[in-house]
Amino acid sequence: DGSAIFAATWTWDASTNGGEIWGSATGDPGSWTRVVPNGFADSNNWSTSSFKVFNGYLYAGTYNSLTGGEVWRCSVCMGPSTDWTQVNLNGFGDAANRSISSMTEFGSFLYASTMNSSGIEIWRCSTCDTPSDWTQVSTNGFGDAAMNGDGGLQAFNGQLYAVIDNRTAGAEVWRCASCGGTDWAQVGYAGFGDANNGVHSEKTAVFNNRLYVGTYNYANGGEIWSPPALPYPVVDSITLANPSPTNAPFVSFFVNFSDNVVGVDASDFALIPSTHLSGSSIVAVGGWGDTYVVTV
Description:
The protein is mostly beta strands. Helix content is 3%, strand content 37%.
């Protein structure tokens, strides 16, 4: 509610103490007090890996590699009358969901992503007051077990974006509009062209009507990526690249966009054949920047 600022600590020795949460009404030195000791009474909660305010509650997601990440919330978060309460099953019922790596609000739901060696999972809730209110809304790793690293969730331009660390191919970006589990679509691929580009949790931001993603890259140095500013690029022109008429088995078209684009493939195009032509299909799409060649 803006009445306090909170920070989390990390512990490397769960045999002695779990992660802590500290709060301050001003943020000034000397004003901080410990509001959650010893990992919510479980020293295996090494840290709070994500925070989010949703419907008047502060939510905190933990890292717990033994029994699974936990989601706690409070309405009174400081002082002698704090009301921190766990609102999910440990790891959403799977201890392999070891971290609640990101949380965000989208529409009328709170979304949470997990780190899982079989592929990340995304869950959501509406009232969020009991474990039974949570529902899984993604397949593990969107069908790829290598999508098992950190991730971030970001609402932007009427869609929810999931930026996930694929530890084999590089960071990927997925998005959905209704986000009930069936409309996720991939829009960012293979570490943005460099498999060394991975992502840690909460490394997304929206600024000046653009989405930004920050990567780690141990080979070449971290990078910041963003799709073009809104409005998004549109097709400016489609022109035939071959003589017409022709008896050639294949013909190509130049497709020019209003700005640079990435991830263009055959699924982005549809053929409208004439009455004199049947059985045609797109056989290749290639190019870069704002110009691509589509071969039919």
